[in-house]
Amino acid sequence: MPDGEKPYRVYRGGRVKGSVPSVPKLPRRSQKPGSEPGDGRPPGATPPRPARRRRYGRWFAIALGVFLLWLTAWVLASYFSFRDGVQAAEHRLPHGVRPQLASQNGLLLTHSTTILLLGTDHSNLKARAGDRHSDSILLVRTDPDHHRIAYLSLLRDLWVPIPDHGTAKINAAFQIGGPTLTVATIKRLTGLQVNHVVIVDFGQFKDLIDRLGGITIDVKKPIYSNSFDCPYSAARCQTWKGWRFAKGKQHMNGERALIYSRIRENRLSSESDATRAERQQQVLQAIAGKLASIGTFFDLPFSGSDLLKPLATDLTPGEFMQLGWVKWRASNGKTLHCRLGGQPDTVGGQSVIQLDENARPVIAMFTGQSAPQPPPPGSGTYGSGCVVGDKTLGTR
């Protein structure tokens, strides 16, 4: 660029006289297909169809309304069916039990409660037709604040004082005075207040399990039992060896679950009333879990009243529903399994279990006042203690 030449040019202009030209008008939007839309789309573009969108929204609102109406009707039908079953279970509870129960302090959703679960199993033998011993004695304590449920098994051969009847096996309390005397005996033994009671007829609960579609049980070790309750003909039962259960999770119908909870002899390993009580806990937990499942909810209008036929209880329909929620919220990893046991002994020719020195601390573990501890080494098959999660108490 030559020296002195400017890198730009200066143009001089002046103000143009006259009026400012106006903006030309846009052509009107054509209503004919394929004409100029007038909004920047090229000719032939398809115009929007808001009417169809509104139609889709209307059908969605109608479908949602129909679903909500169906859901409301289903919930009401489920509740009424379930309520009828609970009320029938309340009528089956002997009248003398309620005065023995402590009143519930607040809602089950927010306050701990202690429930006594009694399992009765009537013998089919004529010689024992009148036996009414409680086959399973289990205290269940809910802890909504920590989303945990605790189970305390009381071995049925515990040698304990029975109010106004001297000393005997704890399961004899049911034979002498039914659930009323059993509640009084357990209150004196443990020092705990019992808020509710549920009596389960094991002879009928197999029908309950079948109505639930079966339950899943995690069998801790292989079982080869003795030949009780043979399902075959008399000729075949002469050579039949007994029931077999493989190790691991397996789905069981009502009959097989009942057999599993009744086994007292295992040819592959040692068995006792303590291990039998643990299996009964498994079955009862599986039933409780299935009752609180979504699948059971959808079947309630048809089977709600039948599901509770094996039960007798003081729990109301509302309390049952609260328990279902607490059970659903509870973590299986925090579940506490406790056993109130002792050492085997013989009294008057009877095989009994005398409470050991760890029995009292187990009550504190069960109520959350102290950390859970397993039965100490050397305590044997019936030692008192607690374990957390899916562990078993077993033999120490």
General description of the model:
The protein has helices spanning 50-92, 172-190, 202-211, 234-237, 254-262, 273-291, 294-307, 317-329, 359-366; strands at residues 113-120, 134-143, 148-154, 159-161, 167-169, 196-201, 215-219, 223-224, 244-245, 248-252, 311-313, 336-340, 342-347, 350-355, 385-388. The protein contains nine helices and 15 strands. A hairpin with a 5-residue loop joins strand 4 and strand 5. It has a domain at 72-218 and 271-388: 3-Layer(aba) Sandwich (Aminopeptidase), CATH 3.40.630.190. Helix 1 (50-92) runs parallel beside helix 7 (294-307). Mean pLDDT is 80; it is low at 123-130. The N and C termini lie far apart (105 Å). With 396 residues, the chain is α+β, with helices and mostly antiparallel strands. 32% of the residues are buried. The strands form five sheets. It has a seven-stranded mixed β-sheet with strand order 11-6-1-2-3-12-15, with helices on both faces.
Secondary structure topology:
Blueprint: H1 50-92, E1 113-120, E2 134-143, E3 148-154, E4 159-161, E5 167-169, H2 172-190, E6 196-201, H3 202-211, E7 215-219, E8 223-224, H4 234-237, E9 244-245, E10 248-252, H5 254-262, H6 273-291, H7 294-307, E11 311-313, H8 317-329, E12 336-340, E13 342-347, E14 350-355, H9 359-366, E15 385-388
Parallel strand pairs: 1-6, 3-12
Antiparallel strand pairs: 1-2, 2-3, 4-5, 6-11, 7-10, 8-9, 12-15, 13-14
Helix pairs in contact: 1-7, 3-5, 5-6
Tell me the distance between the termini.
105 Å
From the alpha carbons, calculate the radius of gyration and give it in angstroms: 36 Å
Q: How large is the count of helical segments?
A: 9
Return the string of H and E elements: HEEEEEHEHEEHEEHHHEHEEEHE
Strand percentage lies at 15-25%
Would you report the number of β strands?
15
Tell me which CATH architecture of the domain at 72-218 and 271-388 applies here.
3-Layer(aba) Sandwich
CATH class of the domain at 72-218 and 271-388: Alpha Beta
Average per-residue pLDDT, rounded, comes to 80
CATH topology of the domain at 72-218 and 271-388: Aminopeptidase
* Low-pLDDT ranges: 123-130
Outline type:
globular
Class derived from helix and strand content: alpha+beta
Classified in CATH, the superfamily of the domain at 72-218 and 271-388 is LCP protein
Tell me the strand order in the biggest sheet. Answer: 11-6-1-2-3-12-15
